[in-house]
């Protein structure tokens, strides 16, 4: 078996373990919940990094980590010190493992875990564009997808006591305790991450998405989009999560629905007739 194939299989196994850990999440509490929370982040980030390495090469994988975990950590340190770019907040001690500069070490890798599936789905949505246009259009789409993901993440983690916002009256209806500046900050930071990956990721950043090769990140995106909506609406206890179920479903749907349309178009595409040339189909 080729090394690339082994890496891709390893990524799928790790991704499956991440989904299993998320299924376990509503069933545990206390220290067990702390451990499962950290495990979900580590497993999702690991699956994303290994898949990126297998399908897009070492350069892309390194840039992915630097752009997401690196930029994400810097933004979190800046955010906890100054309130910029997200608004004033602080992490609650314990629960998420080691802390450096008041930010749990695992937190930056949550950016990696969320970014890569969103990047792949945004690439699929832009797949009919020319490569240069695809690179430009993908950047804001990635930011939209990341904000949609945070509409699930932030309410759930705040409900679990992972971090605390210093204002309780500046957010969306039902989620007033999470300020709107948070989502603006997520959009801006995700834009920066997407630009860094686009510019620094080499051929891996320019490579289009393939539905077979990129099944894992697509599944992780769909699982997060649809599974989180179900979990927040039904399985998790905090009443404000009924609101995040709606907001997150719509937010991630701004990327997910166009992706479904592209999938459907590819599935129902009329097969070429014997008289059609390959070059004509390619155009």
Report what the structure shows.
The protein is 71% helix and 6% strand. The chain has 283 residues and is mainly alpha-helical. It has one domain (58-266). The protein has a two-stranded antiparallel sheet with strand order 1-4. Strands 2-3 form a two-stranded antiparallel ribbon. Strand 2 (99-100) and strand 3 form a beta hairpin. The chain crosses the membrane at residues 36-54, 61-86, 106-126, 135-153, 183-203, 215-235, 247-265. This is Caratenoid biosynthesis protein. Keywords: Membrane, Transmembrane, Transmembrane helix.
Provide a concise account of the structure shown:
Keywords: Membrane, Transmembrane, Transmembrane helix. The chain crosses the membrane at residues 36-54, 61-86, 106-126, 135-153, 183-203, 215-235, 247-265. With 283 residues, the protein is mainly alpha-helical.
What key attributes describe this structure?
283 residues, mainly alpha, two-stranded antiparallel ribbon, two-stranded antiparallel sheet, 9 helices, 6 strands, 6% strand, globular, CruF-like, transmembrane helix
List the helices and strands and how they pair.
Layout: H1 3-24, H2 30-82, E1 89-91, E2 99-100, E3 103-104, H3 107-125, H4 131-159, E4 163-165, E5 171-172, E6 175-179, H5 180-200, H6 202-206, H7 215-235, H8 241-267, H9 278-282
Antiparallel strand pairs: 1-4, 2-3, 5-6
Distance from first to last alpha carbon? 35 Å
Q: What's the helix-strand series? A: HHEEEHHEEEHHHHH
Rg: 19 Å
Number of helices: 9
Walk across the major sheet and give the strand order: 1-4
Question: What is the count of distinct domains?
Answer: 1
**Low-confidence runs of at least 5 consecutive residues:** 273-283
Main sheet: strands, sense, barrel? 2 strands, antiparallel
What proportion of the residues is helical, as a percent range?
Answer: over 70%
Share in β-strands: 5-15%
Total number of strands: 6
Overall form: globular
Task: Quickly give the structural class.
Answer: mainly alpha
